[in-house]
Amino acid sequence: MIALGGMARLLRAHLPTVASLGAKSIGAGWDELMVVAESSMAGGRKEVALAAIALLGAVLSAHGADPGTVSDAMWRRALRVIDVGVEASTTGNCQVPLPARIELLAFIGQVFCNPALQTRLTDADVLGSFRWVEAFCKNPWSDDDSCSLVQTVGMPPVQKAALALLPTLEPGQHVPHLWPEFIWSVTRLVKPEHIIESWNHRDSLTTMSLKNEPSEGDVESSITGGQQQQQQPKLMPAPSHRLQAKYALTSDFLKKMMEVMLKIYTDAPVQVQAATFEAVVRALSRCMQVS
Fold first, then answer.
1. What is the number of H-type helices and E-type strands within the chain?
2. Which one-letter DSSP state was computed for residue 86?
3. Nearest to residue 281, comparing CAs of 265, 268, 260?
4. 264 and 190 in a common domain
């Protein structure tokens, strides 16, 4: 953590000088640093993961807009670190601490909403940011989160952060042609059918729990060597991680998602509204299933 913080200050202050000298090793050194950042994000230690994100944030905010300092290869390698961090943060066996996941979302906004850095973003980069936010919405939990898959009340913090970020990613002047893709990516998060399935899943778990409760006939007592033995009830199985994405899209999430979708659709140019009208109406009509 201390080493990452020191490296961030060093690169923020001296990277332009190092780049101007044409050091041949800067590419290899940058790649090695990015490998460290990747492993730090996915390693499961909060302080180290936060330090790695702060390192990228400090360097890219200070020098990312200058291709003479941060070359195209260095820029692409830095975005690859974000992609690796998102992948580690949204898997079923996620070990990335909650504060680091929320900070990573904030960093994505810092990069993709910065006008100075937007000039370096390709269409694929912008589409990738939509995919990242979608992944966080569908997979907001990790093993160390205090809330379980079934007992979550309201939206998980990661979903709240993702939905707060989503409207800020509206395509600007640099990629206006991506507006339809952006709205279509938003409509993919309106999944009322998953809510119905989650209700059915919850009911089945409740039924299973009631069946596993011991009855008077199940509790057998016997005296063996002066000790009393008692039959223990079976434990209710926990939901599988592969079901995480489906049951993360709760009714609370759906309500907020509809608000966000309508705001984004309203902000879109008229031509885009016409092109995406059918997809938005279809998404809203699906919501009538759970109204």
1. 13, 2
2. H
3. 265
4. yes
Residues in the chain: 291
Q: pTM for this one?
A: 0.79
Which pLDDT score is estimated for 219? 45
d(CA 282, CA 120): 35
Structure tokens at 191: 């999944």
If asked whether residues 59 and 113 sit together in one domain, one would say yes
Secondary structure class of 264 (helix, strand, coil): helix
Per-residue model confidence as pLDDT tens digits over 68-113 = 899 999 999 999 999 999 999 998 788 899 999 999 999 999 999 9
Range of the domain at 30: 1-121
Q: Give the C-alpha separation, 117 to 62, whole Å.
A: 10
Torsion sign over Cα 105, 107, 110, 113: negative
Residues 143-166: tens digit of each pLDDT? 666 544 444 467 889 999 999 999
In a domain, 128, yes or no: no
Considering the domain architecture, whether residues 268 and 195 belong to the same structural domain is answered as yes
Instruction: Provide the phi-psi class of 221: left if phi over 0, else alpha when psi is between -120 and 50, else beta.
Output: beta
Paired tokens of 266: 């309203």
- Name 221's Cβ contacts closer than 8 Å, sequence gap at least 6: 228, 229, 230
- Cα angle at 56 between 46 and 17, to 5 degrees? 140
